[in-house]
What we know:
- The protein is mostly beta strands.
- The chain is built from one helix and 15 strands; from the N terminus they run αβββββββββββββββ.
- A twelve-stranded antiparallel barrel has the order 2-5-6-7-8-9-10-11-12-13-14-15. It has a two-stranded antiparallel ribbon with strand order 3-4.
- A hairpin with a 2-residue loop joins strand 13 and strand 14 (213-223).
Amino acid sequence: MVKILISSLASIALLSQVANAQTKVGNAGVITGTVGVASQYISKGLDSNRDKPSASLTGEFASNTDVQLILGAALFYARPDKPVAIGGGYDYELDYNIGLRKTFDKVTFDIGYSWFTYPQAESTLNLDTGQFYAKAVLAATTSTSFSIYYEQDDTDGARPGSTANPTGLASDKYFELGLSHNFGPASLNVSYGNWSDNISFYKLGMSKELMGLNFTADYIKQDRSRQTWNSNFKDEQFFVVGASKSF
């Protein structure tokens, strides 16, 4: 059965350094949450909601310890455009992650494990996936940061079929490089993502906080030239706008 990885946890992890509202949980730690809407749900360079608007709710607990325990969850309205078996349709994606976080001077490291699940999907479709992740963020200056994110699939990736790459395995590794610079009126965000034997993409975006809301506008361009196992897919370009509120 083909296993398809479609999630935004990588993007959430890369953006988690952005200042958010926090709720204290006694002396145990803090909880941060974000609710958002976007004109499209683009995850790892792929349209994950059939070119329609989407909504999301994310939350994270971080312990008050030197090496922080991180517990996260995310809910996305998502109906990917792909064939599903009878009874296999679904309307949302529910993700979880557990990890550790440690800051050394200007560099913050995260390692952990995440699960991407589709509770409404028929179990025989085998869509749920798990992966190890690692992230590092360098706060080069008060206004500029660099990030790198890596993900290694733990559930056999995707096997598109006999005409796939020699190993028959695709989408088992993912990495993303990011740069963010606040130049005053707004922040410039640039990133490059690469999903092994699937697609790579470039993203150029702007973000601005106004009246307690964070507004974003992103241009995303795919490159599917390495996706040799399916010539039917063509490169796509997206322009996505969104707004979110932290609490």
